[in-house]
Each structure stands twice: as structure tokens, then as C-alpha cells.
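Hi support team,

I'm opening this ticket because the web form for multi-chain structure prediction keeps timing out on my end. I have pasted the exact lines I submitted so you can reproduce it. The total is 592 residues across three entries, so I didn't expect it to be a heavy job. Is there a limit I'm missing, or should I split the entries? Thanks in advance, R.K.
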Amino acid sequence: MKLFLIFISAAIVNNFVLSYFLGICPFVGVSKKVSSAVSMGMAVTFVMTITAAVTWLIYHLILVPFNVVILEYVSFILVIASLVQLVEMFIRKISKPLYDTLGIYLPLITTNCAILGLALFAVLREYGFIESIVYGIGAGVGFTLALVIMAGIREELELANVPKHFQGAGITMIVAGSLALAFMGFAGLISI
Amino acid sequence: MAKKATLMREYAKGLWDENPVLISLLGLCPTLAVTNSAINGIAMGLATTFVVVSSSVIISSIRKVIPHQVRIASYIVVIATFVTVADRFLAAFTPEISKALGPYVPLIVVNCLILGRQEAFSSKNSPGRSFLDALGMGTGFLLVLFVLGAIRELLGSGSILNFTILGDWFMPWMVMILPPGAFLTLGLLIGLSNWINERRAEA
Amino acid sequence: MNTSAKMILVLTLITMISGGVLSSWDGYTAPKIEQYRLEQLRQAVGDVLPAHEDYEKVEADGMTFYVGKEGAATVGIAFLAIGNGFQGEIRMMVGMRPDFSEITGLSVLEQVETPGLGTKIVTDPSNKENPDWFTDQFKGLVPQPKIEALKNQAPQNDNEIQAITGATISSKAVVDILNSAIEQARKKYNSTKEQVS
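Hello R.K., no limit was hit. The queue was backed up. Here is the completed structure from your submission:
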């Protein structure tokens, strides 16, 4: 039950993009087409799940026992950067089609704050190993959800008559604001 | 004189013409997340300025010894080090602000603004110029965060920097200090800056 | 020197310098951060317990109690109550009489409720005379059989409080968290006392 709550909370109620503002850069950059939004979302979910597991192990098996929690940020970001590289090499080895879909998005993920944010939040909330992984999957699904909805709206926006000065980033922010308003309706779900 | 003018320019470009938030759309996560009050915006702006200035100076000083293949990893380590320093400083000396900013302080590590300046500027220029460039970018970032925070605080709580501006007659717009308010205000600010730039180009 | 050797050397050097800088910085700031944490704790315990000279920390079955002492006599017991609110976790410090018969004070330490509505569980700026009216209601409350939150009506019995208009879920969440935390605390604290005696 608790795992389910963590998942719903990360994916919907406290959506990473719309209520924590994490991963905004790809949100603005890659949300022009639904198909690329889906691929990016999958790549992020994949990396998030692995990151959640690995950073948990590093934090609880290395940083805490050796009393070097101060190195948390340095080690997390290095681990994420190398993980992304490994995942990229791994995917290229096992599946060509998968690499063609996800490959170009992987390098962008290193500086996606949603990934580091996930690792930091999981530590802050004192999640256990399994909980962290579920949290990672939930956050990834929530990211994908926001990205795909946004891309759907932006495809329609192409046809709309947007005031000149708001084209591009301006209207994206305003649409995101409306989406965030809609997602606020989910608040309170987790206490039921 | 010509040289001096360009140095000035190195600093000033970050304030408006190449403003990291409004023009380059970098560092949006903290911009949106912590600007529910003016003071949080200022604290975040200062912390980011500190990190980008220190990292730029260090990286441009050692730019010649860093092999090309590991440059990004080296930048990240340097940046993460300064972020940890800033984070612990806030926690030790201004605990209230540290609590309000929460995990968004460590997230300065992945602020694309900082990594972007290293890749685009510090890795190619002298420490002095990198210092000015980073200081300008930091100031530009700080200004936007302060303006955004002030607008949201004024409309959402009726005050600026905790001084009540709007009296009892004002019904605070709660939504402004909630996440949607952040997106809406930034969207309008970006539109406004596009409009101003166009007016300037015409003039 | 070949490139990969140089790569490794440079990265190792940078990381080592970074580690050195950070560990000395840690040595300087860690005591200050710890001191602030202790002060916050002392203040929270002081807020919720009746007047006491000092408090001592007692661990019981995985739960921490802060036992307020006046000389040798125990005047009250404080402990943390943590649970889910409207949008996320609420952490509170609760003070009670030593026999858990009555609440002596409540202080909300951390919450992420909706600004302007749910945050009234901490302070309510619309109530000018007493912004802390919500937590003040808990002072002297008797959690028997359990605390109840009433909607839109003034409390009649001494186990009832009035919920915040517009934030019923947050108010109910506070009450639910308290009810279960008090129940647990009573069991755990009493079980260790029996073992000692």
C-alpha cells in the first residue's frame, strides 16, 4: 500500500515537472512532438529507475558508513553522468531500434535536474531501497505524462494564432501554468 | 579605452541582451521553484552567482591542463564542490533560508546556466574575462529571480520582502505563490521582454 | 604522457582537491548546523511542555521521547508525530502529561500544505488576535477516546477541536496523525517503564 502511495504521489500528486519544476529544460525543448516526447519520457524513466537504485546503494553503503555525506552532491552527479554513458553503450549493444529511439536523448539527461532531484528527494524522505526504486519509476512516469500532454497541446498550438511576442517559450510557460492548475486538482489524493 | 569598453560589455551582456533566463531560457527549474517570495529569489540568485563565478574562475585557470574528453566531468566536479560549499554555508549561517530553498540548493549543480557558461566561455577565455562574464550572468539571473519573486509575493501575499504593501482590502491571489503562478508569471515576463526587445530594435 | 593516463590523472587530482576542500569545510560548518538543530529541538520541546528545568532523551522501542524534568519529577513527555497531510508529510512535536491524559501543547515543525489554506494549521494571518488559534485548541485537550475535529461548529467536549474552514482535510489529517501517534507513544513509553521497574 505504501509503495502504491509513493508511486501515485510521485507520478501525479507531486508531479516532478508541474509541482517541483524539475526537468523543465527538456520540458520546453523536447515537447514539440508527441512521438519524441514519448521517447524522451521513456529514456528518463529508464535512467531514473536505475539512478534511484544506484544512488541509494552509494548513499547507504558508502557515504553514511564512511561518514562522508558531504560528498553527496559530487558523487551523485558523477554517478549519474557515468550511468547515462553506460546505459547508452548498453542500449547500443543490445538493441539497434531501441538505440535509434532513445539514443539521441540520453546525453541530454545528465543535466536534467529531474534525475539529480530524484536522488536527493529519495534521500531526504528516508526511503528504503525498494521504495526508492518505486519512487524513481513513479517520477519517470509523471515526467512522461507531463511531457506527452504538453506535446499534444503544442501540436495543436501550431495551428493557433498566438500573439507574436509569446510564441515559443512564453506560451509554453502559460500552457504549463494551466496544466499545473489542473494537476493541483489531484492534491489530497494521497491522504485518502 | 576600447579594451575597457569590451570588458564592461563582458559583464553587461548577461544583464539583458544575453540574459540567462529571459533570452537563453537556462536555469528555469530554480527560477520557477523558489520564487514564491522575493527573499527566496535573492538568496537563490546569490548562491547561484557565487557558484558560477567561482567555478568560472577556477575552470578558466586550469582550462589548459584539462583533457578535452573529460572536460564535462571535470566541470561537474568543480561545480558540485562549490555547490556543496554554498549549501553548507546557508545551512550553518542562514538556516531559515536554507530550509525554505530546501533541495533546490543542491540542484544548482545541474543548473544548465552554470555548465553552459563553462562550456561556452570559461573554457576559452582568461580568468579575468570569465570572472566578469560569470558575474554578469549571475547578476542577470539574480535580477530575474528577484523580479519574479517580488511580483509573485506581491500578488500572492500582498507584501514584498515581508513588508505589507497591499492592505486588508486586498484578497491575496493564492495561485501566485503556488506552482501555476510561477509558470504564468514567467511566461508573461518572457513575452514582455520580447516586446521590449522589439521596441528597442525598432528605435 | 598518453591521453588516457592524463585524463585519469587530471580527474583524480580534481576530485581529490575537491574532497579535501569539502572535508575541511565540513569540519567548520557541521558543528554550527548541529547546534542549530539542537536549538530548534530545544525550542520545540520547550513550546509544547509545561514549564520545566531540563529535558532528557529517552529511546523506547524505536521512538524517541523528550522527558521534561522539574527537579526529579517528570512534568511532561514530548514526542514527534509524523504522518500524511493534504499534500505531503506533516511533522509535529506533541507535549503530554506524564500519564498521557492530556495534551500540553502542539507545535507544527514541517508541513507542505496549501499556502493560505492548509498552512493555517501553523499560523492563520486572518485571525489577528490569535494567529495560532488552531494549535492552541490542542492545549488541555483530553484525547479520550480520541480527538475529534468538528466542522463549522464550536467544540462542546474536551476531546473536540474546530476544523479550519477551507482546510478540513488538513485539520482532520493533524487530528488523525495525533490520534495514532498518541496511541503508539502511550504503548511504547509504558512498555519500557515496565521493563525498567
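A quick check on our side: Helices of chain C lie at 3-48, 133-136, 168-196. Let us know if the file doesn't open in your viewer.
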